[in-house]
Backbone:
């Protein structure tokens, strides 16, 4: 149990969670209107689709995959008991990881080459993209070179993460893990720590209610004279310019 | 978010982290016998003969305390620096590395050495009868998880690979176990399964110990794997994972494109922007 291990696997996660909580609350209180994705879709949309969609679907699946292995490790181990199911899980996870990588590379390229998007880009935007890129590359490499991570995560890293939440950190296993896995873990803590200062805060205000609310019809009054004429019937047709 | 708030956040976080670090640093005291039996006994006996590593009876007379302290803390560092005695032991025991005992302080190690000096209670290693075909089959199923370990532990192939057609390719986090039987023998494998001396494995089975029956079946299976290793032609799962993943990713891109087939070709105000750029 050396000092660097204590710092990276005990100190750092607690520092990260405190910064994450205090920072996010402060950001919301001070600059609440900036708690958003600060979308640039109005500036460029074509390339955005081929980058943002693969990135977001990929990261949603990968993130919730990690979360599930943390929350119900025994369930994941039970699923992995059949080799075929283990293979399905690993291949799926890797495919979505690749989706994150390709999407993210697209997002970075778009951000740095499109003049209109470049105009609204901050240093922090580039930094967080590179940090997530590092995390993705490490994750894909671990998936390939230290395979069946779904199982060993459930057996070794889930108990470690739980021990942090129980305020009784057990770090012998994580201290003995290969360096790439340690880097992946440390970088994850760093992402949590930097979270409140980046556009990642939009994760917390995702408009999930859009999924359940009744849809709103946006009216495009194409021919004003005709629309105002009481003899014109309500059109059921799809507006032409939308 | 201004600098002052950031600074305050950092200080609060650092203070909290320090408190927890100190708490962990003060390891619980336990007697030398308890430490020996929970960690060392997997691979070493005291007067019971060789297991994975040497019999430690009289080791405190054979080597100086300084040498032992250094070796126990990090045997690999010592071997890499070319210490002749360390290299000799390493080679003699099939180059199976002894894990670094980072969890022990110098005082802990001295306690253990005291216990060894006192003769310990290591006893003779049990002699095992050869495994039956049914046990070998069960061992294989346990190894890849088709039959779950009774206490819910992860299947061996989560981290270990064996070259064997009966099971799917195992993980590559930990050592390849194809020749483990030659390396450490049945008693050694049994001892490691009973009390894993490697920190990652120890943590994985701390709350889910492998039962003696399961251990017997696994030892039988690993002996069988070792015997038949030359005749096996398993698939390469690493490259299949990459190929399968890439194929699935291409399907995903198709799905994205299909799900959003009625998307707008660009921003709704693209025409306005283009006009402005043109007139400039």
Residues:
């Amino acid at each position: 149990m050396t000092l660097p291990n204590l710092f990276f696997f005990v100190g750092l996660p607690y520092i990260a969670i405190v910064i994450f909580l205090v920072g996010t609350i402060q950001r919301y209180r001070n600059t609440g209107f900036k708690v958003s994705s600060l979308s640039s879709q109005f500036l460029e949309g074509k390339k955005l689709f081929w980058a943002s969609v693969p990135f977001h679907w990929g990261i949603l699946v990968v993130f919730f995959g990690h979360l599930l292995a943390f929350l119900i490790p025994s369930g994941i181990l039970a699923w992995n008991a059949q080799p075929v199911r283990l293979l399905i899980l690993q291949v799926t996870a890797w495919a979505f990881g690749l989706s994150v990588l390709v999407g993210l590379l697209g997002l970075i390229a778009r951000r740095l080459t499109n003049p209109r998007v470049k105009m609204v880009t901050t240093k922090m935007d580039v930094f967080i993209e590179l940090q997530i890129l590092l995390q993705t590359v490490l994750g894909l490499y671990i998936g390939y070179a230290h395979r069946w991570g779904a199982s060993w995560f459930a057996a070794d890293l889930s108990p470690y993460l739980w021990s942090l939440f129980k305020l009784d950190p057990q770090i012998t296993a994580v201290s003995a893990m290969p360096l790439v896995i340690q880097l992946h873990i440390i970088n994850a803590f760093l992402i949590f720590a930097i979270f409140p200062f980046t556009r990642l805060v939009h994760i917390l205000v995702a408009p999930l209610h859009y999924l359940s609310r009744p849809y709103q019809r946006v009216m495009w009054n194409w021919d004003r004279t005709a629309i105002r004429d009481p003899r014109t019937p309500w059109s059921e047709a799809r507006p032409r310019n939308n | 978010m201004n600098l002052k708030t950031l600074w305050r956040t950092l200080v609060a976080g650092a203070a909290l982290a320090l408190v927890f670090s100190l708490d962990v640093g003060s390891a619980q005291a336990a007697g030398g016998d308890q430490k020996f039996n929970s960690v060392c006994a997997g691979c070493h006996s005291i007067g019971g003969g060789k297991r994975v590593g040497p019999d430690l009876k009289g080791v405190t007379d054979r080597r100086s305390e300084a040498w032992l302290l250094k070796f126990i803390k990090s045997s690999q560092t010592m071997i890499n620096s070319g210490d002749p005695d360390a290299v000799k032991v390493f080679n003699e025991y099939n180059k199976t590395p002894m894990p670094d005992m980072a969890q022990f302080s110098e005082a802990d190690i001295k306690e253990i050495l005291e216990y060894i000096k006192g003769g310990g209670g290591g006893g003779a290693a049990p002699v095992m009868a050869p495994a039956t075909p049914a046990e070998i089959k069960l061992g294989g199923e346990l190894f890849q998880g088709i039959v779950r370990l009774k206490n819910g532990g992860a299947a061996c192939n989560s981290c270990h690979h064996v070259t064997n057609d009966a099971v799917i390719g195992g993980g590559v986090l930990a050592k390849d176990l194809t020749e483990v039987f030659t390396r450490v023998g049945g008693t050694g494998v049994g001892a490691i399964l009973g009390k894993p001396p490697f920190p990652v494995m120890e943590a994985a089975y701390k709350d889910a110990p492998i039962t003696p029956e399961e251990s017997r079946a696994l030892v039988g299976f690993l002996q069988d794997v070792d015997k038949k290793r030359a005749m096996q032609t398993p698939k390469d799962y690493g490259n299949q994972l990459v190929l399968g993943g890439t194929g699935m990713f291409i399907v995903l891109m198709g799905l994205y494109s299909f799900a959003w087939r009625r998307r707008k070709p660009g921003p709704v105000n693209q025409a306005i922007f283009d006009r402005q750029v043109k007139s400039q």
Chain B touches chain A through 70 residues (CB under 8 Å). Residues 3-25 of chain B form the longest helix (23 residues). Chain B has three domains: 3-117, 137-231, 240-273. Residues 88 and 241 of chain B are 41 Å apart (CA to CA).
